[in-house]
Amino acid sequence: MLRATHDRAIAHYLVQWPWSGEPEMAEVYKRVLATVPAVRAKALHMMLGMQRRIADALHKAFPDRLDAISAAAATGALMGAVRAAGLAGLERYGEAEQEHLASTRRAVDIAMRGLDSL
Q1: How many domains does the chain have?
Q2: Best exposed site among 7, 21, 91, 97 by fewest CB in 10 Å?
Q3: Could you name the domain of life of the organism this protein comes from (predicted)?
Q4: pLDDT higher for 14 or 26?
Q5: Considering only CA atoms, which of 60, 57, 77 is closest in space to residue 118?
């Protein structure tokens, strides 16, 4: 379920992202997000809020399999893996979009192998 949710979110992002089709604006956005502390803090704040909402939804959807702590841990593991792989790839290699998506997909695969124990 986490993998399917990730795949749907990526598909939505590729179609609905505000800078789709505007490579110059996308580049400015990435640079600002990577270098302006206030913007980075706001993005992290939003991501943590989203992580809490996803964990709550998982717990409510699967109360027989996941308690609140397990749902939070699973969500954090997956989102942390994707976030870390995405940032590392962009910072180290300046990945193009397809390489970036491949990196985050690999992070999902790695996290999911660890989450199979749930």
Answers
A1: 1
A2: 21
A3: Bacteria
A4: 26
A5: 77
